[in-house]
Amino acid sequence: MSQSDASSENLNVLTSTQAVIREAVTKLGYGPDMYELLKEPIRVLTVRIPVRMDDGNVRVFTGYRAQHNDAIGPTKGGIRFHPEVTEDEVKALSIWMSVKCGIANLPYGGGKGGVICDPREMSFREQERLARGYVRAISQIVGPSKDIPAPDVMTNSQVMAWMMDEYSRIREFDSPNFITGKPIALGGSLGRDTSTARGVAICIREAAKVKGITLEGSRVVVQGFGNAGSYLAKFMHDAGARVIAISDAYGALHDEQGLDIESLLERRDSFGTVTKLFKNTISNKELLELDCDILVPAAIENQITLANASEIKAKIVVEAANGPTTMDATRVLTERDVLLVPDVLGNSGGVIVSYFEWVQNNQGYYWTETEVATRLEDLMVRSFETVYKTAQARKIDMRLAAYMVGVRRMAEAVELRGWV
Ligand code: GLU
């Protein structure tokens, strides 16, 4: 791959997502008006949130909430706290949520929120004030049958608890169905915390079957040790695979014999940082290019690009993060016969169990962990099969196939409502 190719690559997640949406909509037989509607969220709110910091000073944070399309039902998607959040990123993430919900056949459109901040440098109470301030700022456009948030990068069940409490106070009635990913004591679902990783593990198992790879003894590399990456490493380890490398934002750990995942899990902090405790670390770049069977990017966007796609040794790449592989790199991997399971399928276990949580909140009746796991298994396997068969039948890559499957019902709902 020449340097100029790599340097001219489109790393804007919004415009590159729009290109795939355009292709999917066209291949489904819709005209340009459908693309015009689906290429951007129908609503994006930008908010400024003043927060009293522990030192007495006020800091003003910028946040966003994007709602891609509500033709099918309320919008749904997480809220991330991260220093590099941008409006374009939140918009793209809301489109990805629509596609994800479409593939799993959930009665939602996509939504997403983000606040520009670094929670690793904020105290617990500062994070609480920010979480509550964000909910006050967006309260007009969200709600159990409007737009239902959830956790995402660097937010967790505690943040969801504060947000649910704030929303309930504003509305003056208890609203557990306003947000998912809550602690169990506040109406959370059993199995929600591990659901993204469980879904990724199911995709790995299905992809391994297709590729004729035995999971037992296979070499797995996981980039990122947050909620998805850390549980996934554990599940792979428990399944008899050898997890030879993991990473966090600061570096990566590598051991050909397999890492001691249990001890790493015990030593990670709540943001998934663990490599700082070790001396012999490698870089994230080196980690991605390690010789392995299965690679799971579980961190942030634009990790596999034209600059390194031809160096990836894995035979299967399952995206646990949102947007870790660029559209160009997807093409390169597919041409090299790497089976790429895209984010909108790979990490959909999270929103699937969020949907189960919302259903349980609406019913006021709670399921067992086995019920949750069985229903998740069923939906994930069905989703994988549909996307894989579409890719095979149409001779297209798995990402485009996933977008076609994911957008189909939304386009139908838009048409039935007479919007286009
Ligand atoms: N933030 C997760 C995602 O990107 C979960 C969203 C949800 O549960 O609504 O899929």
Structure explained in plain terms:
45% of the residues lie in helices and 16% in strands. Strands 8-7-6-9-10-11 form a six-stranded mixed sheet, with helices on both faces. Strands 1-2-4-3-5 form a five-stranded mixed sheet. The protein has 15 helices and eleven strands. Among the domains are: 136 residues, 3-Layer(aba) Sandwich (Rossmann fold); 152 residues, Rossmann fold (3-Layer(aba) Sandwich), CATH 3.40.50.720. Helix 11 links the parallel strand 10 and strand 11. The protein is of the alpha/beta class. The N and C termini lie far apart (41 Å). The structure holds glutamic acid (GLU).
Which hetero ligands occur in this complex? glutamic acid
Helix content: 40-55%
CATH homologous superfamily designation of the domain at 195-346 = NAD(P)-binding Rossmann-like Domain
The largest sheet, given as strand count, sense and whether it forms a barrel, is: 6 strands, mixed
CATH top level of the domain at 195-346 is Alpha Beta
Low-confidence stretches: none
Average pLDDT confidence is 97
> Could you tell me the number of beta strands?
11
Q: And the CATH topology of the domain at 195-346?
A: Rossmann fold
Given the C-alpha coordinates, what overall shape results?
globular
Major beta sheet, strand line-up: 8-7-6-9-10-11
Could you say which structural class the secondary elements and strand pairing correspond to? alpha/beta
H/E element sequence:
HHHEEEHEHEHHEHEEHHEEHEHHHH
